[in-house]
Design brief:
Elements: H1 7-17, E1 25-26, H2 31-34, E2 42-47, E3 52-56, E4 62-63, H3 68-79, H4 82-86, H5 102-106, H6 117-130, H7 134-145, E5 152-153, H8 155-163, H9 166-177, H10 185-196, E6 198-200, H11 202-208, H12 228-241, H13 247-253, E7 258-260, E8 265-270, E9 274-279, E10 282-283, H14 290-303
Antiparallel strand pairs: 1-10, 2-3, 2-9, 4-6, 5-6, 7-8, 8-9
The protein binds 6-diazenyl-5-OXO-L-norleucine.
Amino acid sequence: MATVMDNGVLEAVLAEVRPLLGRGKVADYIPALASVSGNKLGIAISTVQGEHFQAGDADERFSIQSISKVLSLVVAMNHYAEEEIWQRVGKDPSGQPFNSLLQLEIEQGKPRNPFINAGALVVCDMLQSRLSAPRQRMLEIVRKLCAAPDIAYDSLVARSEFEHSARNMAIAWLMKSFGNFHNDVATVLQNYFHYCALKMSCAELSRTFLFLADGGHSVQQATPVVTPMQARQINALMATSGMYQNAGEFAWRVGLPAKSGVGGGIVAIVPHEMAIAVWSPELDEAGNSLAGVAVLEALTRKLGRSVY
Ligand code: DON
């Protein structure tokens, strides 16, 4: 272990990466996200020993977007048997942009994995079938996991997405044509957009996702969030599919299971040790936070961490 962690280490990493601000592009295909200032940089780390470190804009809430795809999978795992989930969605990287329709047509409506839009939409369809109030349930889970009772959906972002939902609608209808989408498309999309529009800070995200570093256990609740095996499986999916078509590049540079969102957030897991959340809204071409990836790369090098 190269470095002892403290907030100073995190400040130093942010200072190293700050010159990259201005090189990426804030997501503008969801108009409500385009107004976010690109000049933000934050990091938070929660450890299984109960420590918490943070630096920069770690307390500012942002739209978690696709990071929510991990949470919807967790809820599905809580309500469905393993084979029921994996007969409807795969476990392999797509190598395609997150909102691509290409493979879906060729592969008869079965999405490659739950972390591309198509896969998350199938998962949300499954939640709609078994939960009486999927949006309220998600809020309850997240509020409990990060001990922040005021976590909420950004209704402006959710509405903005719904108004620009042609591609996600097309994905859902294509899956419906193959029999892999059972509920009303608009209803499920509304839930999906609300999940994406969860507003959370890095500090809240690192606390929420600590269960993935701790065998499915969260200090916030008596019952495990998922089983140790499911935590392992989710980490494996994050490592192979969490960063879209840049999963290989990210494994090379950072070497941790991670999930990004077009709001500029990334959650990364050091199994048995810590959950890391970073945020910087400007994205690279794959839709991952440009500075966020650089922060994770600098940090893992400094700390000497990698799963490989
Ligand atoms: O459905 C969408 O396109 C967005 N709500 C989420 C996309 C996203 O965050 C992909 N991440 N890199």
